[in-house]
Amino acid sequence: MRAFHLTWMAFFVCFFAWFAIAPLMPVIKGEFGLTKDQIANINIAAVAVTIIVRLIIGPLCDKFGPRKAYTGLLLVGSIPVLGVAFAQNYETFLFFRLCIGAIGASFVITQYHTSVMFAPNVVGTANAAAAGWGNSGGGVTQTVMPLVLAAILSFGVEKAFGWRLSMLVPGVLMLVMAFLYWRYTQDCPEGNFQELRAQGIEITGGKGGGWASFKQACANYRVWLLFVTYGACFGVEIFIHNMAALYYVDKFELDLKTAGLAAGSFGLLALFARALGGIVSDRVAKAKGLDGRTLLLFALIVGEGLGLLWFASMDSVGMAIVAMITFGLFTHMACGATYALVPFIDRKALGGVAGIIGAGGNVGAVAAGFLMKGTGDAQQTLHILGICVTISAVCAIAVRFSSEHKSREEKLYQEALAARAAAQAAAPASAEPQAA
C-alpha cells in the first residue's frame, strides 16, 4: 500500500507538471504573440516525445525496476519544467514544452508498479485508482495554476514574469517526490529487482527484461488493439487538457479563472471515474472473466464517442460543461478499463505491454493535435474525434484470449481469492490472544 500511495502521488505531481503550462497559455499567447498554428505545434510537442519515452520506460522497468525508473524520470523531468521559465521566444518555449512531455511516461511506471504489487482479483481496481488519482493532477493544475499566478500578480509582479515564477511550483514538487520515491518504495512485494536477481529469483520480465520484453510485447496482436483503444480514450483526455481552457476563453469568452475552473472539472473526474472503470472491470471479470473486461471497454468507448459528439455540438457554456463532464466520465472509465486488462495480456512482458499501450494514448493525442492544426477549428475537430472514437470501439471487442490463457488466469484469480480468504480466516484467531 505504501507503493500504491507513493506511485499515485508521483504520477499526480508529474501530471500536474506536465500540464501546468496549459491553463497559462492565454497569458503566454499574448506575451509571445502566438498564432493558432504555433499553439497547435505546442500542444503536439507536449505529447509527441512521450510516445518514445513510454516505449522505452516500460522495458526499463522490467530491467531496472520501477523504483529506479521513477526516481530517474522525476529528477530528469524537473529540468525542463524549471527551464521553461527561461524561454524568451516561441522556439525556446516549444523546445522546453517538447522536453516536458517526457514526464508523461510516468504513467507507465505507475501502472507497472501497481500491476506487480497487487493480485489478479484487485489489480484492475489498483491500477485504475492509482492512475485516476494521479490523472486528477491534470484537473487540479487547470484550477490551481491560474490561482498561483493570481497570487504572484497580487504582489505587483508583471504577468510576463509571474507565469515564469509559477512554474517553480511543479518543478520543486517533482524534486521532493523523487526523494520520497527512492526512500520509501521497493520494486515488488518480495523486494528490489537487483537483489532478487542476484539471488537467482526470476521475476516479471524474465531474467533481464529490457529489449526482450519489448520484442515479445510487439508480437502480441492484443497489444496493438489496446494501443488503438487507449489512443481513443487517453489520447482524447490529453487533448482536452491541452485545449479546454483556451476553448472556453475563445468560444464562450470566459475569463482565465472561470475557464480554468470549467476545464478543471474534466480533469477532476479522474478522482473517481478512472477508478470506477477498474472497479467495474474487476466486478465484471468475477462473473464473465476476461471476455467481460473487453465487452465493458467496448461499451465505455462507444459512450465516450457519442458524448464527445454531444459536447462538440453545444453552443451554450452551461450545456457544454454538462456534455464535457458526461463524455469525460466515459473517457476516464475507459482508461481505467483498458489498464484493468493490461496485466492479463502477457505477464512475462509486462513492461513492454504497458509501455506500448501507454504510448498509444499519446499517439492519439498527437493525431488529435494534427487534426486540430489541419482543420483550424476546435469544434470541427471535436466532431471528427467523436466519430473516430466511436469507430475505434471495434478494437476493444476484437481482443480475444485462448482457452488455455483464460484457464491460466482463472487459476491465478482463484488462488488470489483463496489466499485472501485464508488471511481473513486467520485474522480473528491471531487477534484473540492480543485481546485477551
From TrEMBL:
Entry annotated with the keyword DNA damage: no
Subcellular locations according to the entry: Cell membrane; Membrane
Keywords from the named record: Cell membrane, Membrane, Nitrate assimilation, Transmembrane, Transmembrane helix, Transport
Major facilitator superfamily (MFS) profile domain boundaries: 3-404
Membrane-protein topology: Multi-pass membrane protein
Xref: Pfam families: MFS_1
Cellular component, GO, one term: plasma membrane
A Gene Ontology BP annotation from the UniProt entry: nitrate assimilation
Bilayer-crossing regions: 6-27, 39-57, 69-87, 94-112, 161-182, 223-249, 261-280, 292-312, 318-342, 349-370, 382-401
Gene Ontology terms, MF aspect: nitrate transmembrane transporter activity; nitrite transmembrane transporter activity
Family the entry assigns: Belongs to the major facilitator superfamily. Nitrate/nitrite porter (TC 2.A.1.8) family.
The protein, known as: Nitrate/nitrite transporter
